[in-house]
Amino acid sequence: MHPIRKKRLTIILFLLAGVSVAVGLTTYALRQNINLFYDPSQIAEGEAPVDVRIRAGGMVEEGSVIRDPESLRVEFKVTDFTSSVLMEYTGILPDLFAEGQGVVAMGRLDGNGRFVADQVLAKHDENYMSPEVKEAMDKAAGKRAALPDGHGEATASY
Amino acid sequence: MYPELGQIALILALLLAVLLSVVPLVGSVAGRDQLQAFARPLSAGMFVFVALAFGILTRAFVTDDFSVAYVANNSNSMLPWYYKFSAVWGGHEGSLLLWILMLVGWTLAVAVFSRRLPAVMVSQVLAVLGMVTVGFLLFTIITSNPFDRTLPNVPADGADLNPLLQDFGLIVHPPMLYMGYVGFSVAFAFAIAALINGKLDAAWARWSRPWTTVAWAFLSLGIALGSWWAYYELGWGGWWFWDPVENASLLPWLSGTALMHSLAVTEKRGVFKSWTVLLAIVTFSLSLLGTFLVRSGVLTSVHAFASDPDRGTFLLVLLAITIVSSLTLYAFRAPVVHVRSRYGSLSREIFLLLNNVLLVAATLLVLVGTLYPLVLDYLDMGRLSIGEPFFSLTFSPLAIAAGLLLGAGIFSRWKKTDGGWLGRKLLWPLAVSVVVTAAVMVGYGEFKPWAFAGVFAAVWVSVATFWDLWDKSGSKKGRLYGLRRQSRSYYGMVLGHLGLAITMAGATVVSNYGVERDVRMSPGDTASAGGYQVTFTEIGNRRGKNFTAEYGRFEVSDSNGRVVSTLYPEKRQYMVQRNTMTEAGIDAGLFRDVFVAIGERVSDDAWAIRLQYKPLVRWLWLGSLFMAAGGFLAISDRRYRIRDKVTETQSSTASQDGDRSRPDPAGALS
To answer: Which residues are CB-contacts of B602 (< 8 A; sequence separation ≥ 6)?
Structure first.
């Protein structure tokens, strides 16, 4: 083969090898590490997979935060005002974690519908709400508005 | 009165920028010298007016002029003066103005330091920079005017600067980062100018190199400062979160690193030309993409100040215009590949090609991981997130492979390297690296495959770098003479590569051997982390200038029971925005940090406390200081200063013979 063509071929092969390694690694890693978001209604309806790492979020229900007196374990309910899900977390909660505030948690659902979180995120500042939480709230609000007894006002303060 | 002057200054700067992007370009195409001569004065004028606008905005902050909406939203009369100053770029509008100031600053620098360049080249480069400036000035004036007034309802006091941003790190992080981002616009302008006049030669590569290198050095510093700031200010001891905003800065860094290396090949050997031009375009586009991601409100984070759909659309259009027009130009004008110089299948060229392949693969990977969730969300196909595991799994092997190749590549020669010779050359460095890495593993008391690979790559890079320095500095007149004979760009390369090794070592060790514990503690309790005993002695309250704080007192003692330091981590309550902030207590050291942060109060007398032992965490940032120092040293090399027009025309031919006559300027940052 002509040396220049040979060289070009080597370069192309190198590039192809690099790109295919990258693509292979990426798809492999993506398959393992995509975390889908579910809102409390979806979890209540059994749409979320059990024992797969997912994200879930909503408002922390008023009066639902219970701390273990011996350790850093804490339980709280997260709600979209239609359904709620019980979450369990051990560790330090973010500064802006509070009852009535939006949170997003990363973790796994166990067989009993309890969400075991390994990471809890709260909003950065007063004006910020996670788009996912906002969407879950809006969706739930829409659902309630469709109900005849109109519990929808509950969301007005948020 | 003053804010309106600022507004007028911005509009005048815009007019000058429009002139700059048209007049010299027309002059250079039509061959009219008098039109080209406008390039430098127009650049200077543009700089003066933008600097004036920036000065006026700064004045509004320092004098608490809350009639300016931007000041009212981002400052407060209680803010200490230095934060009033840094609050100028604490919000969207001001940080954009800072970005433009940097851009016109770079333009001015090109105008001043390009006396030896042909006039055609200078006018085209400045014209391209003028076009970029037009885009950003329009963006500011139309969508994000920092001088908008709140008249007639002037607030009594400002809404304060986000407490997260009230920190030394924020004073310096954005300017450094922007210097880097914007600096790549110069490399971009050189590439476009070269495409316009069809002269992609070694001289073009030589002119682009120092600008690229210095932008890269600033970007390295900016990224490191951001990581350092996140480590101590976000409160929880993480140093890299693979957050889209961080990735936005990493992307141009990765492709900029590739660009820097392929420019070296283009300059020395006259090959990879089209590839280098493409990289220059890609790197600048990634800088713009970063701006778009961070500033458009697509992402919600501490960097996304306000989401205004107009801004996002404007930036996206700007990005699209840049990419489409430059790629179109590239498609028509990129040189038809005719390789004049030959190189063997084992040569420095090939090693640098592999370096580029790995860096581009890493860029693509980070790009996919960053954009995939955004695109899915935009297409309404579900919300998902791609977190740290994805990036660690894919990025680490590429980084390690790059390190291993780098060590071998340092010894390789241009054109052709004998495989057997290279193998024998690598034997001893290899043996030394294995022994050192094994010793490190024993030192940290646990063997982990990933830790071994990462530490080995780091040790290998540094051993090879020093080995090569030793080889090259051998001289009959003595070692010192030999060391002094090496060029500054060679030492720049040495520093840059050592910096990479240091950062790699730090990242590997801290992720594999760091200890992180969340514990429940009451005053009087003791807990341990990584061989240190931490005693919670008391809790108290104090007042700062614009916050109140609850602080804890912690005594850190080593395994012998000797107290090594006392830490005072805090939980701050900022008065104006009612935000709570965690300020960590850190006992910093070259080989380890001990990190204590207070979490929430879990009962009347107990707090959640995070204790961390972070080995070599400082090396992460120390390494980037080395890299940046290497970049600055390389551009101070005399070969960038003493060449005149005569040698420039010769250089395209001179570079063909491999430049082995001098110690090794060829190796500069390669």
So the answer is: A67, A72, A74, B520, B608
